[in-house]
Specification:
It contains 1 helix and 7 strands; from the N terminus they run βββββββα. The protein is globular and about 35 Å long.
Length: about 90
């Protein structure tokens, strides 16, 4: 399994119908999505590993979802999504 801690990867994060471009940053306790300044919706979103129920591959090519304990589905587009999903699921408590 690939270890993503301390790394960042290019990603899009769906906020409503907009796929916001930016990057996912992985640390010891969770992931942070930081948007590029050129998006309509900018800013950061944080998901703690302790709040993740599961991550799964969705659709074709590069989509994945992260489900959290508060009932939210966080939708992302990333390369190497199977590796990212495997890593996130290894962090589920």
């Amino acid at each position: 399994m690939k270890d993503y801690c301390g790394k960042s990867i290019a990603a899009n994060y769906y906020r409503g119908i907009e796929a916001v471009g930016g990057k996912l940053i992985f640390d010891d306790t969770g992931i942070t999505f930081k948007s590029h300044a050129l998006n309509i919706q900018t800013g950061e979103s944080r998901i703690e590993y302790k709040d993740v129920l599961k991550a799964e591959v969705k659709g074709f090519l590069t989509k994945m979802s992260v489900y959290t304990k508060d009932g939210v589905e966080h939708k992302f587009v990333v390369y190497h999504r199977k590796d990212v999903v495997e890593f996130l699921n290894s962090k589920v408590v």
